Amino acid sequence: MGFLDHSTNNIILDAVLTDLGRENLARNDGSFSVFKFAFADDEIDYGHIVNFGRTVGKEKIEKNTPILEATTQANLGLKNKLLSLNNDALSRLPTLTLTTSLTDNTVQLDRSGTGDDPTSATIAVAQTMTTSSVVDPDASDFSYTVTLDYNFLRLSNAVPDSVDGGGLAKYTVEADATVSSQNLTTCTLTLLARSMSNDGHSAASQDGTYVYRVVTVRGQNSGASVSFQVRIS
């Protein structure tokens, strides 16, 4: 959904189904049902609030945000989802931190298992708080969404929830069993490099030797995310 360009004081919304939604609707077997929805603020510049105050800043966001039309590509929308929390006194939210030590924030894998790099790597991320405050239960992440390029990578012992036409896969991964006294959780992933021919690897390589891809881990309740790079030799 997006704001349309307008020349009056009216706010005009353009709402469309994503390609996946249209695919499900096209089945025409009665299985399509909208049972939840989400909002995001990917395009919002909150500097308007800082510069002009809440009332005027809100109006400038509504009228001046350059969103021309909604997109039907699910992987392009809703990258920064809005949260609905019941705690009106909530003042802090947790962040996600990569706790596995990496060189230059990069995981190094080998697609064939014959090179110097391993074909798999274990990565751990954790919810963290800047203070000793206890996290509101609504913001504790008991499951995570992992997004990666399925053409080159996959998660061990897991099946993706979806893979789009470009090969972008999304997994739902349960948090580790241990929860801290602050209601903070961790998530441990085993990342695998997929086997690929030399020609396919070279075609996707930026420098003739390595393929670089980004993996993103996002908490499903808090909305916090962390990304890291994977170098595949």
How many DSSP helices?
3
How many individual domains?
2
Main β sheet profile: 6 strands, mixed
CATH topology of the largest domain: Immunoglobulin-like
What would you say the CATH architecture of the largest domain is?
Sandwich
Mean pLDDT: 82
Radius of gyration: 21 Å
Number of strands: 12
Order of helices and strands: EEHHEEEEEEEEHEE
Structural class, by secondary structure, is: alpha+beta
Shape: globular
Our measurement of the CA-to-CA distance between the termini, rounded to an integer number of angstroms, reads 40 Å
Strand content: 25-35%
CATH class of the largest domain: Mainly Beta
State the low-pLDDT regions, or none.
none
Helix share, percent: 10-25%
Describe the strand arrangement of the main beta sheet, using strand numbers: 4-12-11-6-9-8
